[in-house]
Design goal:
Keywords: Ligase, Lipid metabolism
Protein name: Acyl-CoA synthetase family member 3
Low-confidence stretches: 1-40
Organism: Astyanax mexicanus
CATH architecture of the domain at 66-195: 3-Layer(aba) Sandwich
GO cellular component, one term: cytoplasm
Pfam family, one: AMP-binding_C
Bound molecules: 2-acetamido-2-deoxy-beta-D-glucopyranose
Helix content: 25-40%
Number of strands: 29
Structural class: alpha/beta
Shape: globular
CATH class of the domain at 66-195: Alpha Beta
Length: about 575
């Protein structure tokens, strides 16, 4: 079997490493190319708060209550860590990974709760304010949390759960007076008393549960740091950056990409309490310092911003102003967590002049693949591996392509074939909490995490076809990617949102079903859709069934739960 080196992936100018070319046997590949020393070197690991002392009075977070410097966040977190140790009668000041569940608004109190959990050696378990009590209880119980932290105004939500489960619950002061925590006896400098950060559990993030009950994904301080460092270098983060944060803080996208990355480099994060299209536009366009330079969101947010734009920014003068401000002041706009529809990408470019940077990640692996910061971003593709990440595609137990940040090998003749995407590297999670069997099943023997996503490699980049379980539709002998069908359908002028599912069918095995949301006042029949689709799509991918919904049921991260949709419309 031969691997052919097809692409030297030249990234930012400072990481030019020569790629060997030529033809290798599998053994050579395994020995030489992919046991890259970059991936194996033990890095100095320390939590993000250890950097705060260097950044001192620089503004870390701006929220509804005002500005919070690195120094004040650090001091407040340290005081809270003291309260936590006291509440748990932990004299050593090292909770050794005990879980601390916290429920906070999108403001500085979130960071204080997270850092405090880390400073006393605990593991942070972020809860989400929009989860119903039963979901909160599930996560608190499943994680076996020892203590709850309630930011304002979530004391009332957590107190009954704390009583029911017999757990201590600490209430944080209002974010405007977080400093009042400093009355407590502060513990010693955490970076001096605690060590072995690398292997220390840092965070349990619960998967969104689109397949089965949510699982706690355990990241250590070293896997978190690997995620942060990969993004910091590849996306060119610096302390001059200012990011506008509008995402929920119980997923990697909101926690790592948008909060830990800026705090790692000493940048400033402006946090809005919630997503609100009007407020986001105001802040993006504001000349008030600090001026926003980075924005990241999920596709539904970009859609909503476009809707707001179409309704309110109708004069050419305003439109020119918007394009000019976005072009001059903003250096990076990223989309992720769900597939980005092409019309959204195109319209966003017209409005702001920015080609959204698409990337691929998962709770278990952080970010794995990304389009380049500089250089061509290919619409619909997710680029190549981030530093420290290896990926491969496995088809019928054969690895058909493998890549690192620097190079790629494909088996000759098999480029463009689909298979399961697998990921390995320093940012991959340690385990599912209390689920040894699911952990074991999710890795191959040689340590690749099986993402459960189907992907292909072509034209020098990776393409995600969707979840193997729900997005790969097997119909009449074809394997159809639901995401590709969606990409076509969303270009229909009357369709504003679409989810494609595969329903069981006696004749075809599965049939392609389009669940669509239409423009206000429009109607669409299946024959009309089919007539339109024949002009645009391969015949076997054309939907056989059409379901029109008023609102597409997307979650906060812009994802549709396709198993629920199937269950709703095709109860078996
Ligand atoms: C934080 O604590 C340090 C040491 O006690 C002190 O020098 C510094 O002024 C404090 N920072 C703030 C913002 O209160
Ligand atoms: C993979 O395996 C399946 C089932 O054994 C077979 O039908 C298919 O042709 C194989 N694909 C390739 C490219 O070998």
């Amino acid at each position: 079997m031969l691997y052919v080196s097809v692409a030297a992936v030249w990234r930012s100018s400072h990481s030019c490493v020569h790629c060997r070319s030529g033809i290798w046997s599998l053994g050579d590949v395994a020995r030489r190319a992919f046991t890259s020393s970059v991936l194996r070197t033990r890095q100095e690991v320390s939590p993000v708060f250890s950097k705060a002392l260097d950044y001192g009075e620089k503004v870390a977070i701006i929220d509804h209550s005002g500005e919070h410097s690195y120094s004040s966040l650090y001091n407040t977190s340290r005081s809270l860590a003291g309260h936590i140790s006291q509440a748990l009668a932990c004299e050593s000041g090292d909770l050794q990974g005990k879980r601390i569940s916290f429920l906070c608004a999108n403001d500085a109190s979130y960071t204080v709760a997270q850092w405090a959990a880390w400073m006393c050696g605990g593991m942070a378990v972020p809860l989400y304010r929009k989860h119903p009590p039963a979901e909160l209880e599930y996560i608190i119980s499943d994680s076996q949390s020892s203590l709850l932290l309630a930011g304002q105004p979530y004391g009332e939500a957590l107190e009954p759960l704390a009583q029911k489960l017999g757990l201590p619950c600490l209430h944080l002061p209002p974010t405007s007076s977080l400093d009042s925590l400093q009355a407590a006896e502060p513990p010693a400098q955490p970076t001096k008393t605690l060590s072995d950060w690398a292997e220390r559990p840092a965070m349990l993030v619960y998967t969104s549960g689109t397949t089965g009950r949510p699982k706690g994904v355990l990241h250590t301080h070293s896997t978190l740091q690997a995620m942060v460092q990969g993004l910091v270098s590849e996306w060119g983060w610096s302390r001059d950056d200012v990011i506008l944060h509008t995402l929920p803080l119980h997923h990697v996208h909101g926690i790592v990409n948008k909060l830990l990355c800026p705090l790692w480099v000493g940048a400033t994060c402006i946090m809005l309490p919630d997503f609100d299209a009007k407020k986001v536009w105001e802040r993006l366009l504001s000349s008030k310092t600090p001026v926003v330079s980075v924005f990241m969101a999920v596709p539904t947010i970009y859609s909503k911003l476009i809707q707001h734009y179409e309704q309110h920014f109708t004069t050419p003068r305003v439109q020119d102003f918007i394009r000019a401000v976005c072009k001059e002041k903003i250096r990076l706009m990223v989309s992720g967590s769900a597939a980005l529809p092409q019309p959204v990408l195109r319209r966003w470019k017209e409005i702001t002049s920015h080609v959204l940077l698409e990337r691929y990640g998962m709770t278990e692996i952080g970010m794995a693949l990304s389009n380049p910061l500089n250089g061509p971003r290919i619409p619909g593709a997710v680029g190549t591996p981030l530093p420290g990440v290896e990926v491969c595609i496995v088809m019928n137990d054969t690895t058909i392509v493998r890549s690192t940040n620097k190079e790629t090998q494909v088996i000759a003749g098999l480029e463009g074939r689909a298979g399961e995407l697998m990921v390995r590297g320093s940012s991959v999670f340690q385990k599912y909490w209390n689920r040894p069997q699911e952990t074991a099943e999710s890795f191959t023997e040689d340590g690749w995490f099986k993402t459960g996503d189907t992907a292909t490699y072509k034209d020098g980049v990776y393409w995600i076809m969707g979840r193997t379980s729900v997005d790969i539709i097997k119909s009449g002998g074809y394997k159809i990617s639901a995401l590709e069908v969606e990409r076509h359908l969303v270009a229909h002028p009357d369709i504003t949102d679409v989810a494609v599912i595969g329903a069981r069918d006696a004749t075809w095995g599965q049939k392609v079903v389009a669940v669509v949301q239409l423009q206000k006042g429009k109607t669409l029949t299946l024959p009309e859709l089919k007539a339109w689709a024949r002009e645009h799509m391969a015949p076997y991918t054309i939907p056989m069934d059409l379901i029109v919904v008023k609102d597409m049921p997307r979650n906060q991260m812009g994802k549709v739960n396709k198993k629920d949709l199937l269950h709703q419309f095709f109860p078996s």
